[in-house]
Amino acid sequence: MTDVLISGAGVAGPALAWWLRRHGFRPTVVERAPALRDGGYKVDVRGAALTVLDRMGLREQVRRHDTGMRLARFVDASGTQLATMDAALFGGREGDDVELMRGDLARLLVEATGDVEYLFGDSIAALDPAADGVDVTFAGGGRRRFDLVVGADGLHSTVRRLAFGPAAAYLRPLGHHIAICTVPAGFGEERVELMHPAPGRTVGVYRTAGAPDARALFLFPSPAEEPDHRDLPAQRAALAGAFGGAGWRVPELLAAADEAPDFYFAPMSQVRMDRWSAGRVGLVGDAGYGPSPASGQGTSLGLVGAYVLAASLAEAGGDPVAGFAAYERRMRPFVAANQRLAERNLKGMVLSSAAQIRFQTLMLRLMPRLPGRERMISRVTEPIRRAATAITLPDAPAAAA
């Protein structure tokens, strides 16, 4: 039986473990965090990724965790409502598309993997490839050999750094940063996304149905000096500097962000690589081809990539080079289509001038009364739908291993 070590217990890692196990492999997942991470923002699952969940038998469980959001409400610096729109349209969702919290999806995937071995509170410190396997040294001091190693460990992937080199060579910045954190429930309206657009920066707050707290999101131009991804005080200082003088409830939200235990701060960057594998080491999800949060497709890419990678390795019959090559051939057009969404979406998420904000909110107010409304909505959602379905999935194995 082929032993595969997966680094990362987010979305792509457990999904890959599920499919590898079904194909007859023996996966192990290592995760730096001491336990499953429950935080995070809401994520969308659509198109081919919904088919993957169907084939895992998880579609209905995922749907039960839908956020239930109703409206997006835009407000000015004084809190006065500028416009509203349907939450599904705001998120580019239609039909069977699902929106849920990232932590809920990760937990469902981990629970579905059954007896897969998880090593929480540890990480990969070194990789030593050999002709017939990869010797892995763990940060906790252990050492084991695996037939394959796959990095599903996100934008700052350790596996990518060890196997391919420094992150700077593969990250393509989009010129903006994002910060996300939990804030007290009083900042949000239940099932409503509150958005405060200002020239060059945007703040959003929402609270899902029955949630005990709210989530805040900040989008802003990248700082001149990038704080280290492990330096939380420097990141919080950069956020405060970016939103100095902002109105609405932004000063209160910044104070809450200073206390948030799940504060997340990162550049809006895409991972662009010429190859996603080196011998017996490969990458899946954000580690290999993160499209950035601006695309709205990172979760779907992780689910589809996990499915395609497992199928390709199984079809290769134990030849990792052939398996990884088939995976790349199938996934690259799909990844490219979804990465193209990011720059298009970002233009509408952060507007550069007060005039653009006035025009956008005017169009939102007029849209329900304009002739051809459905055609206009279709023009908004069509690029997302086309990218989300831009792959033909290989057949699933007939039965679980």
From TrEMBL:
Residues 2-338 form the FAD-binding domain. InterPro entries: FAD-bd, FAD/NAD-bd_sf, FAD_aromatic-hydroxylase. One of its GO terms (molecular function) is FAD binding. PANTHER family: MONOOXYGENASE (PTHR46865:SF2), OXIDOREDUCTASE-RELATED (PTHR46865). This is 2-polyprenyl-6-methoxyphenol hydroxylase. It comes from Micromonospora chersina.
